[in-house]
Structure formats: C-alpha cells, structure tokens
Amino acid sequence: MSPLQVTRRGLLGLAGAGAVLAGAGAAAGYGFSTGAPDDVVGFRGAHQAGITTPAQDRLHFVALDLTTTDRAAVDDLLRRWTVAAERMTAGRETADRGAIPADVHDAPADTGEALGLPAAALTLTFGVGATLFDRLGITDRRPAPLAELPGFQGDRLDPARSGGDLCVQACANDPQVAVHAVRNLVRAGFGVTEVRWSQLGFGRTSSTSTGQDTPRNLFGFKDGTNNLKAEEPALLDDHVWVGDEGPDWLRGGSYLVARRIRMHIETWDRTSLDEQQRIVGRDKGEGAPLTGTAEFDIADLAATGPAGPVIADDAHIRLASAQHNGGARMLRRGYNFVDGSDGRGHLDAGLFFVAFVRDPQRQFVPVQRELARSDRMMEYLQHTGSAVFAVPAGLRDGDDYWGRTLLA
C-alpha cells in the first residue's frame, strides 16, 4: 500500500471522523460491517452491499450500454471493475500509486479527487439490464421477470433517461467519494461501455435499518415509514432476495427498479396543509397516519368520519400499502434530486425512486399501476425515466467477480 493510500484512510482517524453505520450489527451477514473507525462497508458477502446497507446520504447512479458484442471483453471489464470497486469501497485508490504514478509521464490510473477522503461507507452495487442478453447472444439466460416495464398512465418517459445494459449504484456519505467511484469505473470501461444516463441524488428518502430515522422527501413529508428493514431477514427472503425460482446466477440476488420522478414543487407549495395531508394520508409534522398519533401507528384503512373514510380512497398511503396490494412489499432506497431549473422558473427536482424486489412484475408493476390510475398525488408527479436491472448475488471469495456466473 502506498503512503497516499495510508493517508486517505488515516486522515479519518486523525480527524476523529466517521460514524458507525446505524443498525449494522443487527444486520450482520447482509454484506456490511460496523465500519468504525474507517467507515468501510464490506464488499463481499451473501448479497451485494448497497441493498440492505443502512442507506447513505448521497447517490451517484449510472446506466451504461455495451459498445461491443465480444463476451470476453465484457468479462474482462467486469473483472477489472470488481478489483477497482473492492479497492475503492475499502478507501483505497483503484490501483497502487494510482493517482500519483512513479513516472510523471504516465497517465494516472486513478483520477485522484478522492485522495485524503475516507471510504465514507461507499457501496457499489452492480446490475444487468434485459438488453445485455440480446447484445451478448445469451437470451436463454435472461430470467422472465427481467423485462421492460409496461407503460403506466401519465408516464412521460425520456428514452435518454431510461433502460441500459448495465448499472452501477454508488452510495456514500460523501458526494465526492460516490462521484469518484462512478467516474473511475466509467473510465475503465472505455471501448467496452458508454454512459447511457446517470443521476445524482442527495438526502436519502428511505430508511433501510431500524437504527435510522425516517427521512423527508421534497414535499416535506416523511418517506418510507413502512419500508422493509435490514433487521427483518424473513421478510427480505420473501420480498427481496431471488430464490430457487431464479437462474443459478441470480439466486440470492434481487431486481432493482429505478424511476426518475419529477415533483411539481411550486404547485405543491401553493396547496394548503390540510389538502397535502389528505393527499398523503399522514400528518406532515409527526408523520402519523390520519387515524393515529405516532409515525409508526398502523393506518386504520377502515376508519370513517362524517365526510367518509378518514384516509381517503385516493390517499397515497392507502394505495401504496401492502394491505391494498395483496401483501406486495418493496425495499425502497430512493434519493432526492435537484437538477437545476427547467428554464421557466420551475425546479427540475424530485425523487429518484430505487426499489429492490424479488419479482418486479409481481411487486412493482401492480402497485405502480394502481398509483398511476388512482393516486391523487399523481397530479403533482411526472415519471420521466425508468429502468429495471437484475442484481446478482454477492461475491463470496477473492476470485469471484461481478458477472462471473452469468457470463461463464
């Protein structure tokens, strides 16, 4: 290890920085550790990190397309990506003396903007899209649930913000660490992949551990109160991890659904508090359902008042609930985004929705169809991007690498 690598990780201890990942001990075995004092999330395990890992504060998500049909070239890239990813999640450069090579006439192997920064709980999660199988001539290995989502009422999807052969989700507690990770993987892919689209996110909009408080979305409401948690392994087995129904290369993995949802912030901000709360089905301060007093009170969807159901028939929490959708649940892992303005004085802002599910066709599709058709909140939302990826299981030993069992 070079002195620069020691410095990057040593600085964290010298500064007394780096928080212990909340709830990590209770979720041991799901690909992450406590992280103290280096704030390092384990890269290898039964499942990929970045799914049940306590959600970090920042996101850089990238979808890529292959520029080759050479399966060997793709396999080689995934080997190199794995090496670089494991080093970066440990707080190291992509290669020894990567940022400052011994010969100044050599191009650096690492772009260098993360020098001196801690690992910041960086996780890198890898997935493959349906189109990859056609490009590489392995359509027989594509699982049936990995298919393009159907069109939903009100969708205004931009093809330039949708789809992709591959994806990498980088989550970290420092935006520069997440951006550095994606930048270096994209750089390593030149000649094999090209960026199709990407999304930066801040301020997680879900909690994936019981040790985390429920965050708020850009409408100001607590988001993801009833999200699945890392400390619920039986529920994760039922709703998140692919079982024997999946192909060998995907068992123990999951499916990632991504949706870029623009929120009409200015219109929402002119809506009365009472109307906002009726649309959501919760109070804005505490986050309690309108039938309760505390955030985690169970919503009584049968309760009625003088004007009808206390939680309206078109309220978001009713239509998104497991009770309303035959028990369907998801592990949500979304982020807020603000991508400047649209040139007409309105923020291009909203929610980058990310969810991990065992079967997107049975879990996400029926829920989103119901929301698109009946949710009053849809008046304030516009879905502009969409993608589905299969996320293989975690890497168990030092010779294993991303995509090995798929491309073998």
UniProtKB/TrEMBL annotation:
This is Deferrochelatase. Residues 48-202 form the Dyp-type peroxidase N-terminal domain. NCBIfam families: Dyp_perox_fam (TIGR01413), tat_substr_1 (TIGR01412). GO terms for molecular function: peroxidase activity. Keywords: Heme, Iron, Lyase, Metal-binding, Oxidoreductase, Peroxidase, Signal. Its EC number is 1.11.1.-. It comes from the Bacteria. It is found in: Cell envelope. Transmembrane segments: none annotated. Binds 1 heme b (iron(II)-protoporphyrin IX) group non-covalently per subunit. Pfam families: Dyp_perox_C, Dyp_perox_N. Its main location: other. Belongs to the DyP-type peroxidase family. It comes from Pseudonocardia parietis. It catalyses: heme b + 2 H(+) = protoporphyrin IX + Fe(2+). Residues 214-394 form the Dyp-type peroxidase C-terminal domain. Its cofactor is heme b.
